[in-house]
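As the next step, I selected for study a record pairing a protein sequence with its backbone structure tokens, which the following lines show:
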Amino acid sequence: MTIWDRLLFSFSRQANREPKNFEVPVLTEAANTDESVSLAHILQQFEDCIDVFHRHIPSIQVDIIYIPHMVDHLQLSREVMDPISNAQTDDLNTIFEQTKFEVAVDPKIIVLAVLSGQAAIFHREKVYLFFAYGPESRSVQQSETETVITGPHDSFTETAGINLSLVRRRVRSSHLKVVKLEVGEVTKTVVFVLYIKGIANMELVDEFVRRIRGIEIDAVYDGNMFSQYIDDFPYSLFPQFLITERPDTAVSKLVGGRMLAIVDGSPAVVSAPTAFFDFFSSADDYYQRWSIGTATRMLRFIAFVITITFTAIYVSVTTYHYEMIPEALILTLRESRSKVPFPPVIEAMLMEVTIELLREAGARLPTKIGQTIGIVGGIVIGQAAVQAGLTSNILIIAVASSAISSFVIPSYVMSASIRLIRFGLILLAGVWGNFGLMLGIAFIVIHLCGLTSLGTSYLSPFAPTKWTDWKDVFIRGPFSTLTSRPDQVRTANPKKNKMRK
């Protein structure tokens, strides 16, 4: 059994233990190369690498090279160091004939193997590789960005092997296929593409793999960074691939006919293709009664409208359209704005920027201090701004409502994009009033209609319209009605639920 085979079948270990289940796979078959496989050549490659350990055993003429912080010392000592150190020269051939030792003949592969956590054993004119990967890694914990009240509380980690095991635990099927790719000329980051054969559209899978192979970059560090290299429209403000840290969400996308991309070193897993409305769905929707899930989802769409338009409407009405203000409110508004020296658009932009500064400061500071800054800073600055005559009471309410509404959207990436759009609508409302606001909204809708995700419609199932898919978009219908997979994935197996109503 090869190292790669052992890797794929080593996921039965508990994920919260120190992982030994991932390494960059190494092919050890003969390769055509003009470079000689010698100890001196390999040591020259690791010149000035103080973290590379070289042990020489003169009695039996064996040299062992490995990186200490990349290997499992207990396994290496038990299966390599001790047997070889206590062996005679004639016994070494018997030891190296075991399947756990593989012969390597390509210097480049030997160097890559050592960098990937394997031990290279030199004996006479042969080099043997031993799978000993086992660095320290973060254990499986709860996601901090996608919290739920009910349902599983585990999340992906920075170790790709653990992430694969979390998916395999939930999808115990041989139809779940895993493709290994490599991205980054310098970092050689491993990317695993997952899909379910017979459900996923193979044309979309091939396109997804083609785009990943087409990435030409020195380094990729995170799934969020990785997704931007395969976007259909890289200059758009809207994310075109869903990023999740929850295994249950990732598996639901797989079963729904989508693909996943697991980037080694990142807890962010990329799902493709993705529709705009997927960013308003949460795992919580499916763990509660359908009526509660529907009400919560509709609340998110209402929050979306509030967060992009509420402050802009205030600017538009107070600048050009006083006739739209109810008579009972106009006197209060006039009194509130009587001491403000700025026009509404400047006033609104000032408060929106202040809110964003508080939000960013709260995110960057330690957790306890960040919460204090966000709450106390918002109250103190808002009250002081009103008393100083820099802003009106009603604008504080509008800005606070918009900020709170942005937090209702489950996806942080989408929430950040929406917050940026809000500034553009405020400027348009300040220049052209309601006409500018409607012009901005129309531009957003037209832009969304033109976006695609992996070649599929970004506004699916709204455009093109697929009425049967609406049962899991704007509402969360009962499970007995969710019988088909989304039309966006173009699956040959659209039926997913055969339960009786």
Observations:
- DSSP finds 17 helices and twelve strands in the chain.
- Residues 289-453 form one domain.
- The first strand starts at residue 53 and ends at 57.
- Residues 269 and 389 are 48 Å apart (CA to CA).
